[in-house]
Amino acid sequence: MQAENQPRADAARLERLVARQAEKRHLAAVWAARAGLEAGMTVLDVGAGTGALALEYAALGARVLAMDPDPASLAHAAAEAARRGLILETIVGRAEALPALPTAPDRVMLTDALHHIQDRDAALRAIRAAIAPGGALFIAEYDPAGPGAIGAPMARRMTPAEAQTHLAAAGFSATAAEPGPDEHYTILALP
Ligand SMILES: C[S@@+](CC[C@H](N)C(=O)[O-])C[C@H]1O[C@@H](n2cnc3c(N)ncnc32)[C@H](O)[C@@H]1O
């Protein structure tokens, strides 16, 4: 690709991500309830992307730290927070090498992000070390048992058993996977 076309390609990529992640905004309320997320808690959203869900957690009254390796996605999230009058702290980083946090999170939300992470055990160990006493990790993933009508491609999906194996390897004690919605399962894990 010619260098002069790069900004247009970057803008188109961001637009696609924003649109795709915005379609999942309705899941924030379900996931916040399953995670026991409450106003006043500090929430670390790992792999927050363009912030569609992180902003909903902020709207519920949580202090939200939105972390992602993609600065463009986080810049969009920050701009959207300002537009909506919400406070969102953004941190560029990867779960495997979790950057220093301003405060230990009560909840870590890792939704549709674990299958993107290469060294999952290292990432989960780093997350476990960062969680505040009494805190928890919430995971949502697309289920390979689903029909594949929406969401991550089948080849990239991991079974609940695989996710549980990674959680156990990192020292978490995980609840049974809860099915749904939208081809997902979710797991709440205690450090
Ligand atoms: C499918 S999006 C999920 C966005 C949002 N969490 C959601 O539930 O809609 C996956 C995100 O994980 C991020 N990601 C990829 N590798 C990562 C890593 N190693 N650590 C943290 N986030 C990562 C990507 O940049 C992307 O924004």
Distance between the termini: 46 Å
- Parts with pLDDT < 50 across at least 5 consecutive residues: none
Helical coverage, percent range? 25-40%
Total strands:
8
Q: What's the level 1 CATH class?
A: Alpha Beta
The portion of residues forming beta strands comes to: 15-25%
Tell me the CATH topology: Rossmann fold
* Number of spatially distinct domains: 1
Structural class: alpha/beta
Rg over CA atoms, rounded to whole Å, is 16 Å
Give, in order, the helices and strands: HHEHEHEEHEHEEE
The shape, in one word, is: globular
Can you give the mean pLDDT? 97
Number of helices: 6
- Please tell me the CATH architecture by its name: 3-Layer(aba) Sandwich
So, the CATH homologous superfamily?
Vaccinia Virus protein VP39
Task: Explain what the structure shows.
The chain is α/β, with parallel strands linked by helices. The chain has a single domain (3-190), classed as Rossmann fold. Helix content is 36%, strand content 20%. It is built from six helices and eight strands. It has helices spanning 6-22, 27-35, 52-59, 71-84, 120-130, 160-169, and strands at residues 42-46, 63-68, 88-92, 107-111, 136-142, 173-174, 178-179, 184-190. A hairpin with a 4-residue loop joins β7 and β8 (184-190). It is globular. 40% of the residues are buried. The mean pLDDT is 97. The chain binds S-adenosylmethionine. S-adenosylmethionine is lined by residues 21, 24, 46-49, 52-53, 68-70, 73, 94-96, 111-113, 116-117.
